[in-house]
Amino acid sequence: MDPLLIVMMALLAVFIFFQFRTSKKRRAEQETLQSKMVPGAEVMTQFGVYGTLLSVDEESNEALLETTPGTVLRVHRQTILKVVENDVAEADSIATDETVIDEPTAIDSASDDTHTVTADGDAKGVDGRAADKGND
């Protein structure tokens, strides 16, 4: 037997193995998603819209999402990407609600490298004296 033929057959077998494995994982993920898609669940669509699932029509492959109170979107059922878990949604809302504001750092008044320029173009140091414009 030709060694090249053996290598090609082995690569083909590995490729087929990974194809079956990937399709099995994808099918399991779809089944998990379908079991979590119940009315009242918070979902995210493929185009990034978050909403509460109101109903799913299996025959027409449509889902009704309420994005804001009174706003209902009719989308294709397969555009629902994932069901948002409560702890993940709470962590995201906490992260967006908290704004970190850095407090200004104290500037050493003895440093000569901090200058401000006044409206008339004169450079002033931190202590208000005219800054040295000469080359050091």
Automatic annotation (TrEMBL):
<keyword id="KW-0813">Transport</keyword>
<keyword id="KW-0812">Transmembrane</keyword>
<keyword id="KW-0811">Translocation</keyword>
<comment type="similarity">
    <text>Belongs to the YajC family.</text>
</comment>
<dbReference type="GO" id="GO:0005886">
    <property type="term" value="C:plasma membrane"/>
</dbReference>
<dbReference type="GO" id="GO:0015031">
    <property type="term" value="P:protein transport"/>
</dbReference>
<feature type="region of interest" description="Disordered">
    <location>
        <begin position="101"/>
        <end position="136"/>
    </location>
</feature>
<dbReference type="Pfam" id="PF02699">
    <property type="entry name" value="YajC"/>
</dbReference>
<keyword id="KW-0653">Protein transport</keyword>
<protein>
    <submittedName>
        <fullName>Preprotein translocase subunit YajC</fullName>
    </submittedName>
</protein>
<feature type="transmembrane region" description="Helical">
    <location>
        <begin position="6"/>
        <end position="22"/>
    </location>
</feature>
<keyword id="KW-1133">Transmembrane helix</keyword>
<dbReference type="InterPro" id="IPR003849">
    <property type="entry name" value="Preprotein_translocase_YajC"/>
</dbReference>
<feature type="compositionally biased region" description="Basic and acidic residues">
    <location>
        <begin position="121"/>
        <end position="136"/>
    </location>
</feature>
<keyword id="KW-0472">Membrane</keyword>
<keyword id="KW-1003">Cell membrane</keyword>
